[in-house]
Amino acid sequence: MNRIPVEEYARIIRDLLASLGERPAELSPIAMAAGRVTAEEVRSPIDLPTFRNSQMDGFAVRAADVSDAPVTLPLVGEIAAGAIDPEPLRPGTAVAIMTGAPVPSGADAVVPVEDTRRVGGGIEIQRGRAVGEFVREAGSDLPRGAALLPAGRRLAPRHLAALAAANLSEVAVRSRVRVAVISTGDELVAPGNPLGSGRLPDANGIALASAAADLGAEVVALELVGDEPGRLARVLDQAVARGAEFVVTSGGISMGTHEPVRQLLEPLGATVGTVDMQPGGPQAHGRYRDVPVVCFPGNPVSSQLSFALFLAPLLREIAGMPPAVRAARPLAAALTSTPGRRQFLRGRLTADGAVQTVAGPGSHLVAALAAADVLIDVPADVAALPTGASVATVEL
Amino acid sequence: MNRIPVEEYARIIRDLLASLGERPAELSPIAMAAGRVTAEEVRSPIDLPTFRNSQMDGFAVRAADVSDAPVTLPLVGEIAAGAIDPEPLRPGTAVAIMTGAPVPSGADAVVPVEDTRRVGGGIEIQRGRAVGEFVREAGSDLPRGAALLPAGRRLAPRHLAALAAANLSEVAVRSRVRVAVISTGDELVAPGNPLGSGRLPDANGIALASAAADLGAEVVALELVGDEPGRLARVLDQAVARGAEFVVTSGGISMGTHEPVRQLLEPLGATVGTVDMQPGGPQAHGRYRDVPVVCFPGNPVSSQLSFALFLAPLLREIAGMPPAVRAARPLAAALTSTPGRRQFLRGRLTADGAVQTVAGPGSHLVAALAAADVLIDVPADVAALPTGASVATVEL
């Protein structure tokens, strides 16, 4: 059987899921919008700052009145932060002003408190200031109508702060991708249940669901089915009814006699094949009632690697996240690889940025994967690499 | 007034919050544990894999029976994944076996299907295999009782998968840090409300609350109070009643006459001072009814920088997250800085890893902060730096 290169299969899956890229917008309260992604450019409805205000605790003056400092001006009052419509400043006077307080009309500079001294009922200005000094003009950060955030920005706290400062209490964000996750296999039980002989806890459900949620998706169904294709069909019907935009399955795509995913979907036109990678070679994809279904192998390490290679890049893009870090790193210890297949070995980073393998290449090593920081991408023709050799790594 | 160096003030705040480091453990269902942090080392209660199973689709045999391959053996049945207690394999026979299916006693190797051919009622084995080949021994990933995850591990999907594979449905995690966030100032209104003259939307509440939540904290109160110290005291009482382990306030610590945080807390022993940084110089800290209170200035940029410098490192540590990335980067464009104070300018990264400032140094530039990727740390004695100069940056 021809083995499909990893990059080609990633393109096939990306094409299958092309419709996910067109995200409808929905409004989110800013308090709930952390990690969501702007659906469109956001413009500020107000000037930032909203009104002309003082950058310092000090005294609002006319710059012309203090050009010959030192000079003493009569002090005519105080303007606190939060003051409303302060009286215009009469020429030849000064008014105490707090940081952030509105600068009165007539004033065009602020003298910081440290350059002044109280003298009776007046204030001695010890150093002159130019027009505009320590005055924040309205709109000097961002004028009303200008772009505050671009489309596609993943909202971090500083972006939410900017939205709040612009007096926006909600923001148009991309809808979350709705995904259904289905584990298959008669041998699987939900974690925490008694394990009969030959029984295994299902690790794929939580692995794939939490990985999807981590990248901004909404998991609309998380199901564990046995080996019966009819039961799988009913669970897929439910997922479609819940609005799943795509489905990820694990298991049931081998050549055996109990392969519910293959048995249900291959007659409906699904493609079953082998990708040039280990773990994770067997792969399938198709549609069920027009909804894309991406079918990973049942082994937990294989399915997690498949997610990292075939789904994570697209979900990250939709979530406005940067791609996983790829870097060439030196090997901290020699490694061996199974030649004939491209290997994705699990690696741990050392303090100085080198990498070494964690345990062996087996696809059953879920504990070893949990201890890994990166995947090490070893070409198919390599059987061994010495300490210090440069290897391609992908962050987990 | 003496200006406290940034690093010294960070130590002061860390000492104030030292009790946060002792996190009680609590049990979380693994489905809710993404992003939580293991409170203790987790040991696997079972062997991983749980039972001896096949690494390939193929035929379970005695290695001794196939050492003179090619050889044809009678085929005595099939073992599917999920099979229970398969019959022992009789010497001189082979049994078909699926990946993951239990290897019967008596068998000690698996021959992959691609090295075989059906011949009548038997199977021709074309290549011999050594004892143990393609057999995953029970416990070969991790033996029962061995450490699956260390204490302090932030739980990513691959860790949850390992817990599930070990048949654990819950995990002991560190309790979340409980924080109360209080914005002060008569001039502030909740975002989305009409802005009267001199009124500003509160950006600090969401900025500090979402930043804390982003780093794993639980925000038990998020309040906006005016300039009245008595009202602040009542809100602090509520926060204490809700179990806040510390409080972050913004605003109200200047030298003015409407400074509720200062007016309430200074008589209770709070320290008010100035840190050698801009924006964000004015800082205060103390305790209210024994609960630590960290008091940031009211300007949104100042308070966000203060959070990044004085709270984020500790919260990241508690959340099992790596420190924010600090890197020396070349300037993509010359910059000017206000000498006399250490400046934290907002910078944007260029495609090639250089950095340039976003807008000016003003502490009112919330839109500019939203457009930034990093802070540029400019020493107090620097007034200008040329293109290409190396600057210290901290990732936002």
From TrEMBL, chains A, B:
The pathway that the record names for this protein is: Cofactor biosynthesis; molybdopterin biosynthesis
Q: What class of enzyme is it?
A: transferase
Q: Which Pfam families match?
A: MoCF_biosynth, MoeA_C, MoeA_N
InterPro entries recorded:
MoaB/Mog-like_dom_sf, MoaB/Mog_dom, MoeA-like, MoeA_C_domain_IV, MoeA_C_domain_IV_sf, MoeA_linker/N, MoeA_linker/N_sf
Q: Where is the MoaB/Mog domain?
A: 180-317
Assigned keywords, A-Z: Magnesium, Metal-binding, Molybdenum, Molybdenum cofactor biosynthesis, Transferase
Required co-factors: Mg(2+)
EC number(s) recorded for this UniProt protein: 2.10.1.1
The UniProt entry's coiled-coil ranges are none
Q: Which reaction does it catalyse?
A: adenylyl-molybdopterin + molybdate = Mo-molybdopterin + AMP + H(+)
Give the protein family. Belongs to the MoeA family.
NCBIfam families attached here?
Answer: Glp_gephyrin, molyb_syn
Function, in words: Catalyzes the insertion of molybdate into adenylated molybdopterin with the concomitant release of AMP.
The protein's name: Molybdopterin molybdenumtransferase
The species this protein was found in: Microbacterium lacus
